[in-house]
Amino acid sequence: MQVAIVEDDPIIAKAVSSAVSAAGHQCRWIADGSAATKESMIASDLVILDLMLPGADGLMVLKAARASGVRTPVIVLTARGLVSEKLEAFEAGADDYLVKPFAMDELLARIDAVHRRAGDKPAMTLVAGNLHLSLANRRATLDERPIDLTPTEFNILELLMRFQGQVVTRKMLCEHVWGFDWDGPTNVIEVHINRLRGKVDKGRDASLIQTIRGRGYALAMD
Fold first, then answer.
1. Does the domain made of 125-219 have the CATH classification 1.10.10.10?
2. Is the dihedral of CA 48, 53, 54, 57 positive or negative?
3. Selection from 34, 9, 194 nearest residue 101 by Cα
4. Whether the Cβ atoms of residue 147 and residue 153 lie closer than 8 Å to each other
5. Which of 30, 60, 62, 70 is 20–30 Å from 54 (CA)?
């Protein structure tokens, strides 16, 4: 599991990082609130977030992430311990809340519990570089600009993003789009793929959707 530790205190960050790494997870430290961007949170499996941060307050970071569709689990780790402060964080989208000073064993147990709960929920936003696909409202954005997709194009892009970097066969695409009883020609996929490329490849030197000759298609790994 990839854990992002958003904490400006280097002593606390080092201690948490060491303990989380020893528990078998990968860690990265973000010391500034303004550096805890939407992309950095999406790239993580779980975020440990301090509230009192330089650059941008942790609560602002959390609200902005949730407002933009980020569903990465977040454990708030802070010295703020008032009930009203806890309620505000939960209302902003926190999954758990732990007050400093804290026991490291408790933090590790909370990490496991939050990650386990999150694993029961399907991701509502798929991400590939600057391309975002919201499954909740069936909208796509590229560089934060909306992309107008037909229902078929959306379904094709969804499958490609779920298997990013892997080959998706034409048969897989046909079954995903039209159901397992599909027995029509698979070349219809090529028509939709070409139209989809015209919408997602704007400003790119190479196509995001690669043709794997004789096998199918793959979404490039940025």
1. yes
2. positive
3. 9
4. no
5. 70
- With residues binned 3-state (H G I as helix, E B as strand, rest as coil), the percentages for the chain, rounded to 5, are 40, 20, 40
Q: What predicted TM-score, i.e. pTM, was given to this entire model?
A: 0.57
Distances (CA, A) of 14 to 6, 7, 182: 11, 10, 54
**Within the chain, which residue ranges are assigned CATH 3.40.50.2300?**
2-118
Thinking of the domain 2-118, which architecture would CATH place it in?
Answer: 3-Layer(aba) Sandwich (3.40)
What is the amino acid identity at position 184?
G
Pairing assessment for the beta strands 2-6 and 46-49 based on DSSP bridges: parallel
